[in-house]
Design brief:
By secondary structure, the protein is an alpha/beta fold. The chain has 2 domains: 157 residues, Aspartate Aminotransferase, domain 1, CATH 3.90.1150.10; 227 residues, 3-Layer(aba) Sandwich (Aspartate Aminotransferase, domain 2). The chain is 39% helix and 16% strand. It contains 12 helices and 16 strands. The strands form 3 sheets. Strands 2, 3, 4, 5, 8, 9, 10 and 11 form an 8-stranded mixed beta sheet that branches. The longest helix is centred in the last third of the chain and has 28 residues.
């Protein structure tokens, strides 16, 4: 079959395709793989009970279920949900947000596909623009969302060594260059894959730069405030008319509902809505209906703060303790765990590359993700990109512990053969 350039892009091997293929096989029930590689949220019993009770109320209410599955929502998304969310954000943060500032999508991946196409590629004046990642590593799923070659440009971070085995990435503003070819700046906070949380100072600096250059700042807030609040450091939530804030219901525990949320100025929302109409006709009503009462009441905030955040913070601490004890005496470094669902393990001077380590670990029945996939747009050779792996700690405690033991064994074997 002879595909177009567009078609060939989706038949080539990519990091996100490998990740989701691994995830699907591990979650199929026919595999004994220990899934420490994907971003699937944990199944938190108390949270799942709340969603089950909400579904039971929908089923019991006359015609609610039939309307949810039998009617198209508008391409901007369910109006009751976007109105309730705008009300909640105004109350929490005093942001000047109204329903016309919010659009829903079929998941965050869909949000970023549209946003990257809005602000990169060829413009009407013939100029070609790119998306700037001021700090990498960044989310693996971004890499293939630029449908043209060289859609991204990235900046290598500075590295702060907090102690012998803990470090943190920072934006190197001294080296950061924003030229006329930049159409938008994009960061995630907390960051997938590293758990990094950009400081308030870093975010304010980026907001100032984006305003100065008259380009939007896109913030991927899938793990952040006010929900699902998988963020372990004290930071300020920010938004203004030049900021595009992207959220999701996935990490609440609802990845199957495919509900992304874009908060932006009305012009951007109109473009997202138009894209939804063309590509999808409508957005999913399941996620908004399951969470509408939680948003209206504000209970989504207490759910996130009292159940979801402590669950993942405890799991992060346990995973760090397990891995640190197993790798004692080796040249390992863990990024400071400030949020999200992952440990980012840097193995300095690793004798093999991270992809080879991934394959060895996979052969032992554990799935992780090689770090080399997480540097979209970075030019030049940097050994660091081949010395890191991403490890998910969101699964059951016994699964995580057994997986970490095998990972440590393979890491030590890689070092010890030299």
């Amino acid at each position: 079959m002879n595909f177009s350039n567009f078609g060939q892009k989706f038949t080539n091997k990519s990091g996100i395709l490998q990740l989701m293929d691994d995830l699907g096989q591990a979650m199929s029930g026919d595999s004994d793989m220990l899934m420490l590689g994907g971003g699937n949220p944990g199944h938190i019993p108390e949270v799942q009970r709340i969603f089950r009770e909400r579904m039971q109320r929908i089923l019991a209410d006359n015609n609610s279920f039939e309307k949810m599955i039998g009617n198209y929502d508008p391409p901007q998304g369910d109006l009751a949900f976007t109105t309730a969310l705008a009300d909640l954000l105004r109350e929490l943060f005093d942001w000047d947000i109204h329903p016309e500032n919010i659009a829903l999508t079929l998941g965050s991946q869909s949000s970023f596909f549209t946003l990257f196409k809005l602000f990169s590629g060829e413009y009407s004046d013939g100029k070609k623009k790119k998306i700037l990642f001021p700090l990498v590593p960044e989310y693996i799923g971004y890499s293939d969302l630029g449908l043209t070659n060289n859609a991204f440009i990235a900046q290598r971070p500075s590295i702060e060594h907090i102690d012998d085995h803990t470090f943190k990435y920072h934006i190197d503003f001294d080296a950061l260059e924003i030229t006329d070819e930049i159409g938008a700046i994009c960061v995630s906070r907390p960051t997938n894959p590293t758990g990094n949380v950009l400081t308030d100072k870093e975010i304010q600096h980026l907001m100032s730069l984006s305003k100065q250059h008259q380009i939007p700042l896109i913030i991927d807030n899938a793990y952040g405030l006010p929900f699902p609040n998988i963020i372990f450091s004290e930071v300020e939530s920010v938004w203004n008319d030049n900021t595009i804030l992207c959220m999701s219901l996935s990490k609440l525990g609802l990845p199957g509902t495919r509900t992304g949320i874009v908060i932006a100025n009305p012009k951007v929302i109109e473009a997202i809505t138009g894209s939804n109409a063309v590509f999808n006709l409508a957005t999913s009503g399941l996620g908004p209906q399951l969470t509408l009462d939680l948003v209206k009441s504000g209970d989504i905030i207490s759910l996130s703060k009292q159940l979801i955040k402590p669950y993942y913070q405890q799991k992060a601490e346990q995973a760090i303790n397990h891995l640190s004890a197993s790798l004692d005496g080796y040249d390992y470094h863990l990024h400071k765990a400030e949020g999200a669902l992952f440990l980012w393990l840097w193995l300095r001077n690793l004798p093999i590359n991270s992809n080879e380590l991934y394959n060895r670990i996979k052969d032992r029945g554990v799935l992780v993700v090689s770090g080399h996939y997480f540097f979209p747009g970075l030019n030049g050779d940097w050994q660091h990109t081949r010395e890191c792996i991403r490890i998910t700690y969101s699964q059951e405690d016994d699964t995580v512990k057994r997986g970490l033991e095998i990972i440590a064994e393979e890491v030590k074997r890689a070092y010890d053969v030299v």
